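F.,

This is the one I mentioned.
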């Protein structure tokens, strides 16, 4: 694959944006419907750990 610096940057930014969105949705779920955490197979501690991460962290 011949990735240009611009395409690599777009890919990184898209990944970061997706992490921000996913963690925001997880935060909302934990606040509004905490019972759903069990439905998706996560503990409260796992959710807290995930939402504490910065957008650049996996």
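My design for it:
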């Amino acid at each position: 694959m011949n990735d240009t610096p611009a395409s690599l940057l777009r890919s990184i930014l898209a990944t970061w944006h997706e992490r921000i969105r996913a963690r925001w949705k997880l935060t909302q779920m934990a606040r509004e419907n905490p019972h759903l955490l069990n439905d998706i197979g996560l503990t409260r501690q796992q959710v807290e750990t995930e939402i504490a991460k910065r957008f650049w962290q996996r």
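The chain has three helices and no strands.

Talk soon.
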